[in-house]
Automatic annotation (TrEMBL):
The keyword RNA-binding does not apply. Zn(2+) binds at residues 218, 221, 242, 245. Residues 80-343 form the Deacetylase sirtuin-type domain. One of its GO terms (cellular component) is nucleus. It comes from Cyprinus carpio carpio. This is Deacetylase sirtuin-type domain-containing protein. SUPFAM superfamilies: DHS-like NAD/FAD-binding domain.
């Protein structure tokens, strides 16, 4: 898989032998398999076939893809002399249904208000608190070669992160409300906590870029399992084993060294037709997910609700239709909800979903 924390100049030619070895990657094996999946997707998308070579570069080096114009080079876009958009403009266009095909990109920052620690925050992030598992380095817990060597650390962490231990918050229910109103085209999430599903967002509306606990696969015979079939073993601290071949059953979380989920390539059909991109709660440091934010057509509005400027909002030239609402993610979503006039609807949805907390009292 290509989920690597990279700079903007990374391509497959830049991978060092050490990096490949540590992550179990092979330029001849993993990249060719990814390319095969890519070609399968392109074969069903006539308008993208002629750009197959250009788009395939995105899979290997997202930064190079953006530098060469991203999907704007294929699907058009442009910019006129228009005033800088504001959050109020975004809200008005959502409310008046001028935005009907909204893509949401989200990371760990939308789940931390539910009590789930993120991965990279100094001191409090998961990667800084894994010493108890005696790992050679923090990322090893999500590397497939290390998992085959020692699955215990991952399953100990899985017990903490398993869906059901935490509840969705206002942010998840806002995205659910977009879906209920028929304006959500797709949600692309880096999270593996399952809170999007718990909030009622249908799986078909989700691209779980880093995988999911909802399904699992035997690492030996490849038999499929439902995630709930593993719950008892995981909660009891037992490694789940396949009754057929006694192999380890691994939740379908995407590890370093594994292929991208095939559903990730849905971006090839979603991004050309989207009319608004909302990015929230992510550092945009993990590729190729991170570069999706720069792959939207230039004419499409982009809204960032985040603690900091990230990705193209930080290093790209500012677009007139880019809006950044910086600070606490829940506070930013609350502000957007109030501008939309959806506060009562959102509270009703949260109450039905089991969250009895008022929108005004959501943790900030």
């Amino acid at each position: 898989m290509l989920y690597l924390k990279t700079g903007l100049n990374v391509c497959r030619c830049c991978f060092t032998e050490k990096s490949l070895w540590r992550r179990g990657l092979s330029t001849t094996e993993n990249l060719s398999r990814t390319n095969l999946a890519h070609q399968k997707i392109l074969s069903h998308i006539p308008h993208a076939q002629k750009g197959a070579v250009f788009l395939s570069q995105f899979l290997y080096c997202p930064a190079a893809f953006i530098r060469r114009g991203g999907v704007r080079g294929l699907f058009g876009g442009g910019r006129g002399n228009i005033r800088q958009q504001t959050l109020e403009d975004i809200a008005e266009n959502i409310r008046e249904r001028k935005f009907k095909r909204i893509v949401v990109m989200a990371g760990a920052g939308i789940s931390t208000p539910s009590g789930i620690p993120d991965f990279r925050s100094p001191g409090s992030g998961l990667y800084d608190n894994l010493q108890q598992y005696n790992l050679p380095y923090a990322e090893a817990i999500f590397e497939i070669n290390y998992f085959h060597h020692n699955p215990n650390p991952f399953f100990a962490l899985a017990k903490e992160l398993y869906p059901g231990n935490y509840q969705p918050n206002l942010t998840h229910y806002f995205i659910r409300l977009l879906h209920d109103k028929g304006q959500l085209l797709r949600m692309y999430t880096q999270n593996i906590d399952g809170l999007e599903r718990m909030a009622g967002i249908p799986p078909k509306m989700l691209v779980e870029a880093h995988g999911t606990f909802a399904t699992a696969t035997c690492t030996v015979c490849r038999r499929d399992y439902k995630g709930e079939e593993l719950r008892n073993d995981i909660m009891e601290g037992t490694i789940p084993k396949c009754p057929t071949c006694k192999g380890i059953i691994k939740p379908d979380i995407v590890f370093f060294g594994e292929e991208l989920p095939q559903q990730f390539f849905t971006y090839l059909t979603d991004f050309p037709i989207a009319d608004l991109l909302i990015v929230m709660g992510t550092s945009l440091e993990v590729e190729p997910f991170a570069s999706l934010a720069g792959a939207m057509r230039g004419s499409v509005s982009r809204l960032l609700i985040n603690r900091d400027l990230v990705g193209p909002f930080a290093w790209g030239s500012q677009r007139h239709n880019d809006v950044a609402e910086l600070g606490d993610v829940v506070s930013g979503v609350k502000k957007l909800v109030e501008l939309l006039g959806w506060k009562q609807e959102l509270e009703a949805l949260m109450n039905v979903g089991g969250d009895k907390t008022s929108v005004n009292n959501q943790e900030e």
